[in-house]
Amino acid sequence: MVKVITGLEIGRQANRICRSNKEFYLAVSYWSGGAAKALGLLPNDNARIVLDVESGGTSPEELTQLIEHLGENVHVHRDLHAKIYASKKRALVGSANATGPGLQLKPSDRVEAAMLLKDKQAVSAYKFARKLFKDSEVATEEHVEICRKRFAKKTVAEAELGKIKRLDLFSALIAYPELYGHLPVIVSDEEVDREERDDAWKEQRTSLEPNSSDADFDLKKWDDFGSQLPSQYQDQMCLALHIGSKGAVWGGLVRPFPQDDKDWTFARRVSWEELPGLKFKGLQNGPRGPVSIKPALGKDIMKKAIEQLAEQDNEVNYGRDFIAALHGVLKD
Fold this sequence. Notes:
This protein is of the alpha+beta class. It has helices at 8-18, 35-38, 60-70, 120-134, 141-150, 155-161, 169-175, 177-180, 194-208, 296-310, 319-331, and strands spanning 2-6, 24-28, 47-51, 74-76, 83-86, 90-94, 113-118, 137-138, 184-188, 222-225, 238-243, 249-256, 265-269, 291-292, 317-318. The chain folds into two domains: 2-161, Endonuclease Chain A (Endonuclease, Chain A, 2-Layer Sandwich); 169-331, no CATH class.
């Protein structure tokens, strides 16, 4: 039998494997967050563990506990990236590390998947995990020391711990270019006449905010442009970037509201967390509302890239174009 499982079921099936009354193997690269205790391994005479310490994904505390309770049945493999939980009766082969998010020991947006194998199919995974164990070395205090030096200093460790750094928009674009590449980019350096904007808002707010006919314009909820945007932008999630009169740069995710007014466009601000794949909890000034660009170096680079993007007349620009411009400025 072969079955794809996800979510909490991965942790349940991993626990079931660890309750085997015969020898089982866990060839799982990263360990942290109390996984050993949650899996009932402290102690467990039937458990054979092989893991990785080189990549910075295993915590020293977790490895110390495993060594104390399992002794020489804990091995280290310097090139391990597998995630195999296997007895001769049942096995999991998938993406889940032995960590809090991996096994869903705490609430997480992490999407994991595994193949649940039984009987003859499980034996194949069991034999492979056993071979990895035999081809590796016994874990020692030296390996714990490697974990102390490397854990929580690597991106993978931060992700496994659920630690997400707060980023400014400039850093986010550089760090996560794949998340922005598909977004239309709206560039604006126009001066906003607040009276004209407020007049336009009064005319349109009933349709824009049907339950708040008397609501004032709220910059935390809305962005605005002193012209009508092309239809390609309307009702699409976009990255909006602005240059102020004194050189300040700010931006945000927006969804321009479809409208017929040729003099003004209002765009509803979108939470950064609504961008698929975006895992950090808001930006420096976020998660909703205008986000200023800091530090000064980032602001200057962003400004130059925005100006380059603005030179592409009558085209819908995309995040990939803007990020390419950013990197071009960085190289100069």
